[in-house]
Structures
1.
Amino acid sequence: MKIAAGLVLTALVVSAADWRPATESELKALIPARASVEKEHIETEFRTASGITDGKDKYIAGVVLITAGYAAEGKYSNFLIVQAGIKIGDLSLSPGEYVFGWRRKDEDTLQVKFYEAHSGKFLGEAAARRLSRVGRIESFRISPPKDKASIQIGRFGMSYALSE
């Protein structure tokens, strides 16, 4: 039993180590200029695009939405493409397209709510905590598991884990 558990754990570690930041050309091929969100096609701000890949045609990537003038304004801020399952807090996201928005819970925490992109169905929420690091702040960034599996929203971040 211990050997089998060790083999599974090793397989997950090796798999996570294969993930790397996606290149700009990979992101351009993946991120739509307009994301389908409910019944609208909302512009994306490509300069904020970030993602990771396993190098074998699976990506986890996202981008900031330009929601001014759309029904989504104030509800969603980001579009997220998941091609390999991930878990953020207690929320599991299987391969698909998602949107999320956030509101400040307190000085050190954002409440981040996730929805299916096409239907707008609420899926769950996670907390993003204020990052203690000093340096460059990006509006949106996904770090690969080998660095520190996190999704950064400005000065806040939330950890994730690969679930496949």
2.
Amino acid sequence: MINIILTLIGLSIIIPIDATYLFLNKNFYTKIIDQNEKINWIYAIGTWLLIIISIQLLVLPQVAKDLTQVSYTPFINGLFLGLAMYGVYNLTSATLYPSKWDYKIIIGDTLWGMILTGTLSYILYKIKTINKY
């Protein structure tokens, strides 16, 4: 089930973290992004919502089923969710735009997605557990 409060908390966490990462690493993405393009914040928020909703539907219920799991299980499950989401995106983009997407972007962006999704999964799990959302 999707929890609105947890979704809003997730947005308040993911937006500054991911926006800061993208700003600090904009040179990494210059090969694939036209410098004249502006960020479409509506699509960015949609992307972040999909990540948070996926965590709530796929990671948090799985962790709640087995209370014998170790405390870092939400992080590990989130890593794999990030691998699937960012990996599919990057490999599909590399398939469609092979002159722009090279292995450095595939690996770097997928690793970032894994870390971001894993960390957010762990934080949302802890918030949900402590606050009983």
3.
Amino acid sequence: MDQPKHRPLERFWPYADLPEQPTDEELAALDPDLHEALFGARPRPFSITLVFPTLDDPEFPRALELARASAEYRQTGAGAALRHRARFWSSDPLPLRNLFEIVGGSDATEVLIDDRPVPFARELWLPLVWFLIPR
């Protein structure tokens, strides 16, 4: 049996020293379906989420202001793939409508009901939520 000519150092480790537990920011950035699969369902009220790209619209800064004021706001992607996610509870129909009036004209805007795309979300679900706006 041949003896090795040198012995590797024990301190050598080619990987970054990462924490064993994910940070709060990493947990917040998880896809909702993955979070549910890993940690179970979180009890939360009914929600409607608007997912939209950066738009070339003079009202877009106002849209970002409304999105950041939502119950949960998150940005994903970068560059042309940048998407803004704003979740609203059913108790906040007016800010939801105000944001949708700005970003809803874009075909790239998605409407998610409890984080899932459902048929007729724009045509049925949103007008039903508008009925919750006090007159």
